[in-house]
Structure to design on (265 residues):
């Protein structure tokens, strides 16, 4: 079992898990030479009083970009959706704890129960709750790697629903809110098939937001910094619309699965 966070000074009440692959960990501002330009949009700025992150060593610390710098370590991380999400909701719900767990290039099967990625996510979530905070939602953006093979498409919906069941069971939160992204790009030719599978997931307290139409970098795979800011705000809109009213009570089964689309201006 994971040990408790070492820094007892920070005790964020509302905790959000950020998981999936590279568009969650963030490649905004990273060029083709894997160098991050260091530019932080104002919507992604730090707030030392309200936004914290759980480091790889399970310490609560002030959150700053790149959020996944010590988690997704095999590639260069840049701007993701986490900080713009947190900044968009902080004044409405209070101190926020972000738990980065995403790793680029990972297929859904690599997140199955018992795998390193899955167990690390669960252990980090448990460690984040050690001081009394509550997990309010899992933000999930994954699927680009699964567009490569037809058999992955055919099993994606069932495997994603199984992942949701497993996470909820292992965290003893049967109605944990899940906000997932319908992907905007893919590594293979089955992008639209994966998108369809993501939109068909039909479980209580599961909301899907659509990244299609957000600007992609030159690689036609990863979101730009500007697009990541918009995605974070879409996550925030979905959370505030569907789940924020339950801040002081447990989310219950009457909140049905829905598809949430945010206008892209």
């Amino acid at each position: 079992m994971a040990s408790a966070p070492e820094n007892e000074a920070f005790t964020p009440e509302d905790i959000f898990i950020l998981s999936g692959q590279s568009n969650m960990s963030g490649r905004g501002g990273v060029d083709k030479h894997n160098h991050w330009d260091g530019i932080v949009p104002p919507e992604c700025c730090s707030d030392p009083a309200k936004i914290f992150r759980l480091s790889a060593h399970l310490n609560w610390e002030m959150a700053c970009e790149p959020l996944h710098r010590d988690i997704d370590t095999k590639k260069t991380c840049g701007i993701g959706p986490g900080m713009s999400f947190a900044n968009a909701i902080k004044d409405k719900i209070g101190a926020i704890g972000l738990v980065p767990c995403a790793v680029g290039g990972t297929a859904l099967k690599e997140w199955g129960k018992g795998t390193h990625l899955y167990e690390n996510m669960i252990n980090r979530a448990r460690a984040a709750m050690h001081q009394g905070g509550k997990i309010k939602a899992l933000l999930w953006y994954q699927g680009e790697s699964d567009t490569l093979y037809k058999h992955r498409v055919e099993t994606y919906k069932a495997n994603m629903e199984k992942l949701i069941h497993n996470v909820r069971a292992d965290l003893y939160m049967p109605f944990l809110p899940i906000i997932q992204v319908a992907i905007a790009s893919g590594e293979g030719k089955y992008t639209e098939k994966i998108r369809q599978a993501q939109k068909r997931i039909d479980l209580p307290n599961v909301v899907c937001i659509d990244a299609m139409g957000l600007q992609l970098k030159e690689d036609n795979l990863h979101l730009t910094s500007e697009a990541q800011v918009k995605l974070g705000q879409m996550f925030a809109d979905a959370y505030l619309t569907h789940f924020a009213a339950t801040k002081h009570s447990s989310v219950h089964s009457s909140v049905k699965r829905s598809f949430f689309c945010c206008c892209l201006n």
About this structure: The longest strand covers residues 134-141. The domain at 14-243 is CATH 3.40.50.1110 (Rossmann fold).
